Structure formats: C-alpha cells, structure tokens
Model the fold of this input.
Amino acid sequence: MAISRILQLLLGAVVLMAFVIYFLLNFADFKLLLDINFLLLFIVGIVYSFTIIVNGLYTKYILEAFQKRISIVESTYVSLMTSIGNFFAPIGAGLGFRAFYLKKIHSLPYSDYMSTLYGNYLVILVVNSLAGLLSLLALRNHDDGPYYTLLVFFLAIFLFSLALILTKIPSKIINLFQTPNASRVKRFMESVASGWNRVASDKRLIAQLVFVTTINFLLTFSIIGLIILALNLETTIYAVLLLSALSGMSLFINITPANIGIKEVLYIFSASILGFSVAEMILIALIDRGAQFIVLFALWLLASKLKAKDKLIN
Done:
C-alpha cells in the first residue's frame, strides 16, 4: 500500500476518533436525536435512492456521446457500485470501478472517460459555487470572518471555472503542463482544461451534464432540508442552499476515505453564518452520512440478490 494511501487512512481514523471524543464529552448537546422525525428520515432515504438513478444518467450520457448505448437499469447499477466504492472502499475506488467497467463492457477508452469526467467537474464547480455565492448574498448580515472566507472561496472557484468554460484552452498552453516534472496541481489543471475542450465540442452533452448536475444539487438541497426538519431545527432556504453548496464542494477535497471529516469541518466552519451550534452541524452531517450508508447497503443487498437470481435463471 502506498504511503499516501496509508496517511489518508490514518487521517480518516484520527478525524473519526476526534468526532467520537467530541460526542462523548458533549453528549448532552446531542439530545436532539431523541425527538428525531423518523418519517422524514425515511423520505431522505428515498431521495438518496433517486440520486443513484440520476448519477447513472451521467454514465448513460457519457456513453451516448461516444455512440455507445446503455440501459437505465445498467447505468443505475454502475452508479450504485461507484457510490459504494467511493463510500466504503479506499479513496478513488468508485471512480476506478466505473472506468474499468465502461472499458471492459462498453470498450470506452480510459482517456475518453477521464476527459469527460474532468470536463464535468467544471460544470459541478460552477453550479455549486454559484449557489454558494447566492446564498451568501442573502446571508450578508453575518459579515464575520467565516463569511468573508467562504465568499472569497466561492468567488474564486466560480471565476476560475467560468474562465475555463468560456475560454477554449489552446493546445500549446495545455502542452506546457504535460511534462514529467509537472506538479499534481498542474497535471490536474491540464486534465480539466483538455477535458472541457472535449466536452465543449458537444453542445448536447453540455446540456445533459448541466441537467444532471442541477438535479443532483436539488436532491442534495432536499436531503439537507429534510434532515434539518427531522431534527426540529429552524432554518432558512438560504442556509440550506449554502450547506448544499458546501456538500458539493467537499467531494473535491479527497484526502480521507469517503471524505470523512471534510464535510463536517466545512459545516462547522459555517455554523456562525447559519445560526447553528457545532453539535447541530455535526448532527446534520452525521445523519446525512448515516442515511447514505443505510441506503447504499440496502441497495447493495438488493442488487446482489437480483444478480444471483439472474444467474440462476440463466
């Protein structure tokens, strides 16, 4: 196992232990769990199931862009296995599974898959950063340190992503990053730039990626809003909008297994803006993870059972 992988696992374990210790030392602050609305949590599980289907559309649209076909059922299965890999397995396992599956079953070259993946990253960044900026504009009466930090963060991401989208990167500039000694950041920028150039040439694909990203964001918005209601907490649409944007951004900070601790830290950092306590922020994030865990585990059991039954029939 690579040293970087070991360090990531250790960091994840340290973060998890820190939350456990905080929970034990501040147990009284988590009494909100005693009055939680389980019906709303059940609805959260249903919404999470829809995210699996919507994420499957991404795979379907990518294949169609390369004149390949995949059914909704199969694309949903790939989405489920990808989500399970991202949540339970070592870092990057989910994306690796999808790339391997599409290569083996549908003969989609890794280069084509990765180019569209990086191009899609820009769409996700624009949608989430724009949502973050709009929410902060509505919450501008909370003008403290965290507020201005998040404002600069979202504005920088939005302008950078929009610049790459509106500007077709010349191949000469892209080639500057393609050197053996190029840093990981430079190689990532090269991948995003060349990936967007690939996606930008297909207007239909752009529309499809924007559609999937927007629906996904709305589903995330619904999940977070329902969790807050289930905890009987008072909030505003703009607070839920900001949490949804932070949730989307946390996916890009891939330094712990399942990004554990990343979303929680971002939520805690924004607590003063949203009017929630640290304990409430942790509860929202952990219930979110718990619901995702249960849904993925249940769907995995169902998929395994159906696959075993299909093998018996055939």
